[in-house]
Amino acid sequence: MRAIQQREFGGPEVLELVDLPIPEPSGGDEVLIRVARAGINFADTHKREDGYVQKQSLPLTPGSEVAGARADTGERVVALVEQGGYAEYALAPADRVFPIPDGLDDGAALALLIQGLTAWHLYRTCARIAPGDSVLVVSGAGGVGSLAVQLAKPMGAGRVVATASSDEKRELCLRLGADAATDGDPSDPELLRDRLLGANDGREYDVVLEMAGGPLFDVALRALADMGRMVVYGISSREQNEVRTGRLLKRSQSVIGFWLFHYLEQRRHLERPLAELFALAAAGEVTAVVGDTYALSDARRAQEDLVSRRTRGKLLLDPSR
Q1: Within this chain, do residues 151 and 190 fall inside the same structural domain, yes or no?
Q2: How many distinct structural domains can be found in the chain?
Q3: Is the peptide bond before 215 cis (omega within 30 degrees of 0)?
Q4: E strands along 20-177, which residues?
Q5: What is the pLDDT of residues 131-178, one digit of tens each?
Q6: Cβ-based neighbour number of residue 138 at 10 Å
Q7: C-alpha dihedral over 245, 249, 251, 252, to 10 degrees?
Q8: Angle at Cα 39 formed by Cα 312 and Cα 129, nearest 5°?
Q9: Domain span at 231
Q10: Cα(157)–Cα(151) distance, rounded to whole angstroms?
Q11: pLDDT at position 308, please?
């Protein structure tokens, strides 16, 4: 089968198109999936450099989510895989395989898998969103952000503000349901804080969903209200931050880290949220924003485009090309 493999850690150039044997399931605990589309995630770029939360080993076939058909039954499914998604076939633990409802295409199902589950848990599990809470979504045109913007109001939020890096992306955030969208450029921290507060009618935020890190994290924390909750689910800038505990105590604020893969051990953390997300999609209340589909052979370019922020929505790989 055709697959992407890396034999060393580094930049996009380490991703190679190779021919590998089709993997074989070990008993009933694994399911072989014929991959129609593989999802691309920002975490893939960290894994490529061995800079991810979880250490990686070589050789590595990237990719943690796929959509396609079960090889044994032909049923259309989405699945979370340990690795190996950038390939024509992938193995998935049986308890991390979910049927795709009729009327939902592969790209939308993938957008609602890792990104959708992340957005759901950011609100429900971490931020514990309450009716009327104001919400700031950093990078609201991205894979997680575009779903977080849409889920905010159905989950009870009041005013919703998103940051995005271009006029086009800010317009997308508004179409998805944000009440306001503003430039998230942190090069002038005071100006950014003024923009963020101005977008929320001069008030600080009850909930901030943050995945950039670096200066933007610091500004967003300064825009957090008393008893506010900031949920950190990424560090796309690769700049980590430090938080003074005295500040948190003084304002009864919370900074909460979230990593989806801690929630994969129990199917209940996946099944209920996915059912809710699929139902919202079927009702037209949530639209999965699917971006470009790249040929498997263009995996390098796909990751380059993602890191350089030339993309929006969910990025996919087509293993047939």
Answers
A1: yes
A2: 2
A3: no
A4: 30-40, 65-70, 76-80, 89-93, 97-99, 135-137, 160-164
A5: 999 999 999 998 899 999 999 999 999 999 999 999 999 999 999 999
A6: 29
A7: 110
A8: 65
A9: 119-261
A10: 9
A11: 86
